[in-house]
Amino acid sequence: MSGSVPDELSNELTALQRRIVDTKSKVLLVFEGRSGRVIGRVANEFMNMLEPRGTTYTHFIPQGKPDSPHQVMSYITREPADGTIAIYDRSWYSGMMMAHINGEDTKEFCENSLSYERYMTYNGVILVKVFLDIKESELDDVAGIFANKRSGAPSFLTDDHIGSKGFDRKFFRKTMEETSTENAPWDVIDANQLDETMIQLVRTFIDRVKFRMENPYKQPDLAVDERYPNPRETADLTQKAKKYKSELAELTTRLSELQDRLASSDRSLILVFEGWDAAGKGGSIKRVARALNPRGYYAVPVAAPVGDERVHTYLWRFAKHMPKQGHIVIFDRSWYGRMMVEPIEGFCNWAEYNRSASEIRGFERTVAAAGGIIIKFWMEVSPDEQLRRFKERQENPLKTWKITDEDWRNREKWPVYENYINRMIASTNMPSAPWIVVESEDKKYGRLKVLRTIVETLERELR
């Protein structure tokens, strides 16, 4: 049995998908409901009406609290690219339901869901959320109508995961009330007869997408609010390293031991390195990497977005590198380009910049809630010391590749960058994702401070 949709409605959906491609729109259709078998059948029928080259499908297995930043960030990494439709068979809401069933507090789930949806919609994703509703008394009959009878042993093709009998309809109704917003409202569709369900679904999808294409999301009236202490204000650039070799060896050994403990834990480590050009990011990262087993870490050098990175929301390329349990990722520059280089060089508009602090705080809170230990380093040097290092690089044939015309141009904008940097740090220096200012006038002191901070943080978090 297949869902029957009138030709006129089917043609309208085809024309809409063509328009999505032509306008490079991003559309995300989220399915939730009591029965996974029903969701799967409806999603399949809907996908069969679309051009498959412009459609992606993801089945998310709800597990309550995400076990790693890698898992929770999959909601971003599977987002639609320009000109495509992404279909989510279950979502963060099923994870919230599992947490509820397991007796966990779901307040943070709800806050993170709203934060995620704000980020998606304000960055151009048209979000359509559909709940396929079935009365409890009709559940078994409807599941039998929508899905084939199970043959053989249960598998991922037939597993409902949540379990229809354990689904708390009252809780989900309350959740929908709390998360049905102007930008991302819920649509409830009765799933009793397949034909009627498909007609209602296609009509709802078309109406929601066309309305949003013709009425773009209103940008929020936000500002980069300086709500946290700025450790740059107390940085002491006169600091010098003492007993460098012995402390370096001691910290290296200790970090290696702590990596073993991290690897057998349910935590992960995210290191972010930002700072002035020639401030010592590369040297510090090198000393950290020397202490680590390469099986458990990877480094991500960040430059201007290219290829697929240009057709997704700006956090997508960072979300896909978030670590699994026990792993470490090192970012050589990061998502904070949105708060420094991009507004200064005109790569993002004023509204996008003003949203950035709020979006990044939400991003980092979600990573931390999934077990990520976040440490953000700002490498600090004086303008005079930077100039000395620039000249040294120019004169050394082995280091000339490290100095570019862009470095000199950025140096001329030092006062402008300094204003943006101070706002960036003071608006995102959260306790769960703190900024550590590393005084790197003396490179050796800076390297030791980086290693010492990582060691002390892991010792505290892995107790």
Please describe what this structure looks like.
With 463 residues, this protein is an alpha/beta fold. 47% of the residues lie in helices and 14% in strands. It contains 18 helices and ten strands. It has helices spanning 7-22, 36-47, 69-72, 74-77, 92-101, 107-122, 139-146, 169-179, 194-214, 244-263, 281-290, 316-319, 341-345, 350-369, 383-395, 405-412, 414-428, 443-461, and strands at residues 26-33, 55-59, 84-89, 125-133, 186-190, 268-275, 297-301, 328-332, 372-380, 435-439. The strands form two sheets. The chain has a five-stranded parallel beta sheet, sandwiched between helices. The chain has a five-stranded parallel beta sheet with strand order 7-8-6-9-10, with helices on both faces. Strand 7, helix 12 (316-319) and strand 8 form a beta-alpha-beta unit. 38% of the residues are buried. The model has no long low-confidence stretch (mean pLDDT 93).
Number of DSSP E strands:
10
Cα distance spanning the termini: 57 Å
Work out the helicity level: 40-55%
Mean pLDDT: 93
Order of helices and strands: HEHEHHEHHEHHEHHEHEHEHHEHHHEH
- List the total number of helices: 18
Instruction: Give the assembly state of these chains.
Output: single chain
The geometry reads as elongated
